[in-house]
TrEMBL record:
Pfam family for this entry, one: MutL_C
GO cellular component: mismatch repair complex
Name of protein: (apollo) hypothetical protein
Gene Ontology BP term (one): mismatch repair
Domain MutL C-terminal dimerisation: 1-81
Superkingdom classification of source: Eukaryota
MF (Gene Ontology): ATP binding; ATP hydrolysis activity; ATP-dependent DNA damage sensor activity
InterPro entries documented for this protein: MutL/Mlh/Pms-like, MutL_C
Amino acid sequence: MIEIYKDKLFEMGFDIEIKSENKVIVKEIPAILGAIDVKEMLINIAGRLTEIEDTLPVEDKVNKILATIACHGSIRAGRKMRLEEMDELLRQMEKTPYSGQCNHGRPTYIEMKLSDIEKLFERR
């Protein structure tokens, strides 16, 4: 499956060498992904390619893969962040169009009224 999309993956910043049907060497990944588990990500991409309908245009498949890749570079639930990191993330979100949802359309934050928060903590 990876071999079929090797050129498109290369355009996205992946340099992949196919050794056999079950063995690939990943020489480069997009810098934006940082330090990630490359094996897990590639397995995930291959799985997504298998799931995606064959009737979809190649560009739509690539966009779905990019959404998956973006998730690999995201901040995951439960990760402890320093105050400076949290502040920087919020400043970046303020500058980023459509930052209120992830690439899959799920919300990245919710707005709550102070009165709702007070109710949660039984203050009112």
